[in-house]
Design goal:
This protein is an alpha/beta fold. About 50% of the residues lie in helices and about 15% in strands. It folds into two domains: about 70 residues, no CATH class; about 250 residues, TIM Barrel (Alpha-Beta Barrel).
């Protein structure tokens, strides 16, 4: 699909989603289209789905949907659920899931959504989770939000690595111009009191629309960068989590980097988002090659918490309009 067509489609999807969210019937249609991307509407449901996936040899990373907590109480609620989740996950002996955390869920944010309130700085909140999950032997990944959060997220991770926390992973987005430098300064040239192979880095193109002074604005360019970013990450010695559904990019990473350079299977895994069909059509091939495959399994604790995440997923879905039309034609929502 051409880049221009893709951009128009995303705009159109965005427009349709806004329309859907503006009426009660539309919201029902939105929920129905978004359901495949959600692992559950409670912690229990999410764990049931994780268990079902585990039987199919899929690993999981579990996320509590919610971002931009605007009150301290709301961010406390997410913190408490993360603690509960860590406790439950620590009971898994086999295929223990990891946990993904959004900065703006565990920190209460100001009106601009660009900074945390002074009562809930990211380093404190993430530090508490890192401490608790270390005791429980559970791995955490700090999801990456838009570029306003990059410095504070990477600074917090570095501070925790310097304090010796091995269980914390980060996400880097290939579309950002700064990423090559972050890899060099924060990973390659940096010294921590832990083995570099214990540092997990998820490599993705990044989902947020960013201005062109901070990022490339086409997916094609972001994917070119993704391939070289994965190569750079392997060169630093960290554990690499390759997060893309693009088969061409995946094949290039496998053929040009993993196979050609003989990267051992213990040094990486592939990650996909629950509900994205491109993942299900390639996972068996990856598993047959002995590669690990992990799915991002987000769940909601409050109705509507998942809307921003699901909006992004539906906007990125090339079949969204078709599925919406099909639903409407069947008059399920009229
Ligand atoms: C495990 C995981 C964790 C992630 N964490 C972060 C994060 O912390 N921060 C961040 O900014 N981004 C994150 N992302 C999102 C990522 O950056 C991309 O936005 C997303 O994966 C789509 O990019 P792509 O490389 O798959 O390429 P795309 O070109 O978007 O996708 C390739 C193909 O996959 C299919 N596809 C993609 N998305 C959908 C969809 N929603 N519905 C249906 N089909 C679809 C389409 O056929 C598309 O052509 C994460 C992705 C994964 C897999």
């Amino acid at each position: 699909m051409g880049e221009r067509f893709n951009q128009i489609l995303r705009k159109f999807n965005g427009f349709m989603i806004d329309m859907m969210l503006s009426s009660k019937r539309g919201r029902r249609l939105f929920s129905s289209l978004a359901e495949p991307y959600i692992a559950g509407h409670s912690l229990e449901q999410a764990l049931q789905n994780v268990d079902a996936d585990s039987k199919k040899s899929r690993l999981s990373t579990i996320d509590i949907l919610g971002e931009a907590a605007t009150t301290i109480e709301r961010s406390d609620e997410y913190m408490a659920t993360y603690i509960e989740l860590i406790n439950l996950v620590s009971g898994y002996n086999e295929n223990r899931p990891t946990i993904s955390v959004k900065p703006t869920a565990i920190c209460a944010v100001d009106k601009t959504h660009m900074h945390s309130l002074k009562e809930t700085p990211l380093i404190d909140r993430l530090g508490q989770l890192a401490e608790h999950s270390t005791k429980r032997d559970v791995n955490l990944t700090l999801d990456m939000e838009d570029h306003n959060w990059t410095d504070v997220s990477l600074d917090a991770a570095q501070e925790l690595w310097r304090s010796g926390y091995e269980n914390l992973g980060i996400v880097l987005q290939s579309r950002l111009h700064r990423t090559a430098n972050d890899i060099k300064e924060r990973l390659k040239d940096a010294h921590y009191d832990l083995d570099k192979s214990d540092i997990r880095v998820r490599a993705c193109i990044g989902i947020y629309d960013e201005p062109k002074d901070v990022a490339v604005t086409t997916k094609k360019a972001a994917k070119e960068r993704l391939v070289s970013m994965v190569d750079d990450l392997f060169n630093t010695g960290v554990y690499v989590e390759i997060a893309t559904h693009d088969h061409r990019a995946l094949n290039r990473i496998i053929d040009e980097i993993i196979i050609r350079k003989g990267i051992p299977k213990e040094r990486f895994e592939f990650q996909f988002l629950k509900g994205v069909h491109n993942a299900y059509s390639i996972e068996q091939r990856l598993m047959d090659s002995g590669y690990k495959v992990r799915y991002y399994m987000p769940f909601e604790i409050n109705d509507g918490d998942g809307i921003p995440y699901l909006q992004r997923r539906l906007t990125a879905n090339p079949g969204m309009v078709f599925s919406a039309m099909k639903n409407m034609m069947q008059r399920r929502f009229l």
